[in-house]
Amino acid sequence: VKGSVGFMPPEQMFNRQLTKASDLYSLGITLICLLTGTKSSEINTLVDENYRINFKPLLPKLNPQFIHWLHKMVAPNLKHRYPDAATALKALKPIDVVNDVTPLKTLLQAIQPTKAVVKLATLSLVAASSSAITYAWITSPARQLLTSGECQGCNLPNINLQDKNLNKAKLQGANLSGADLEGTNLWKANLKGANLSGANLEGANLNGALLHGANLGGANLKGANLDIKRAKRWRINLKGATMPDGSVHK
To answer: 175 - beta bridge partners?
Structure first.
């Protein structure tokens, strides 16, 4: 219903710049219509002169936290909304939608349609989040690394690169702290000055990899073919790392 009168965020009506928060407004209005039984053609009856949606009196049985969440979805000022679908979904998940103090009979009457609406909200937000994540992936350093093999100085903490082929990859100065590199092929990869602290490199192929000045503190190197003598010459930080033989470096 995006673009319909009443479903358009104020910034769209005044031809201002739209953001991800603008999409959330339309979803919020849809949820309000479903929860209150308001026809989409009559949503304007809930809008005041300041573009606020006055739906709270129509939903007395719902948890105030959920009401607050819904108010934030349809705030007239986009700066007061959730910035994107992922943030809105994260805020929604822990909320008990129907207030615990509601009498049981009323609760049973209200909870089923409400659950269905919340499920719709969750699915919509997941879909929107997935689209955002897909876009982020297309433009991300991770994609750059896997397509070109070059990502010097990239910030990739906690990335999952398990079993990936990164032979001859150029990762000088990259932040790979906490990364999952189990079984990854890093043959002749350039990891000079890279931060691999806490990374999982179990079974990784480090044959010929350049690790001068790299930080491998606390990393898991069990089963990795790391040349220990060369590592010491290159002044690699191995403090607390699990070594290829299973021992912990002091």
So the answer is: 155, 195
Integer Cα distance of 33 and 3 in angstroms: 16
Residues of the chain with CATH 2.160.20.80: 150-250
The residues pairing with 187 across neighbouring beta strands, listed in sequence order, are: none
Residues 223-229: contacts with CB under 8 Å, at least 24 apart: none
According to CATH, the superfamily of the domain at 150-250 is E3 ubiquitin-protein ligase SopA (2.160.20.80)
d(CA 66, CA 77): 19
Under 8 Å CB-to-CB from 141, ≥6 apart: which residues?
151, 154, 155, 156
Q: Which sign does the torsion angle of CA 157, 160, 163, 167 carry?
A: negative
Q: Is the pTM of this model over 0.90?
A: no
Q: What CA–CA distance (Å, rounded) separates 31 from 16?
A: 24
What residues does 98 pair with on adjacent strands? Answer: 62
> Residue with structure tokens 């699915």?
123
Kindly report, residue by residue over 108-153, the tens digit of the pLDDT: 343 344 455 555 555 555 554 444 444 444 446 777 787 788 899 9
Helices (H), the chain: 10-13, 20-36, 64-73, 85-92, 104-138, 141-148, 228-233
Closest residue by Cα to residue 86 from 128, 23, 26: 128
Q: What is the 3-state secondary structure (H, E, C) of 186-198?
A: CCCCECCCCECCC
Closest CA to 10 of 92, 83, 79: 79
